[in-house]
Design brief:
The protein is mostly helical and 187 residues long. It has 2 domains: 11-77, no CATH class; 82-186, no CATH class. The chain contains 10 helices and no strands. The protein has helices spanning 11-24, 29-47, 53-77, 82-95, 100-109, 114-120, 125-139, 149-158, 163-171, 174-186. Helix 2 packs antiparallel against helix 3 (53-77), helix 7 (125-139) crosses helix 10 and helix 8 (149-158) crosses helix 9 (163-171). The chain is elongated, with a radius of gyration of 23 Å.
Amino acid sequence: MAGKIPPVPDAGNLYEAALTHLSRFAATEAGLARVLGRRIDRWVRAVAADREPEEIAGKAAAARGEVAGIIVKLRAAGALNDQAFAQARARRLAKAGKSRQASLAHLAGKGVNAEMARAVLHSDEARELAAACVFLRRRRAAPFGDADPLKVLGAMARGGFSQEIARRAMRLPRDEAEQLIIALKQS
């Protein structure tokens, strides 16, 4: 093998990798576990030609066993908090014009459990209407432009907005829609 053989992933260097990742990205416990798992998988691929498969499998299994302890340690230190992640991400998604349904799907993909995601994204019609207005402004649709209403309704349905919310948002006067967007961005 031409390159340098990476060190065996142990609790110490996995912990350092976790801290490095968390210094750059917000993450959930499940997301960090995936990142550390991929790091272990990269090590397995890098040393596969130089070592016995049984040795590699044993060291990889030991490293995977360390991941749960690392996550517990980081949670206790306050570096990992799924609730705070979900709240911050839900605010960001609403300001970006994402529906409640799209936000729930996004949080599920990031590893936030469904109960916590529903608690963070409580059903709020005003928030949903404001997010729909952001969506319409981005698409340059009524009341912000003249895009084909049927195409916009289809796009909003695919984006998770109910037909009632979509039609209400499209019927709003432009300045009222702008006020909803401003209120959403300031919240």
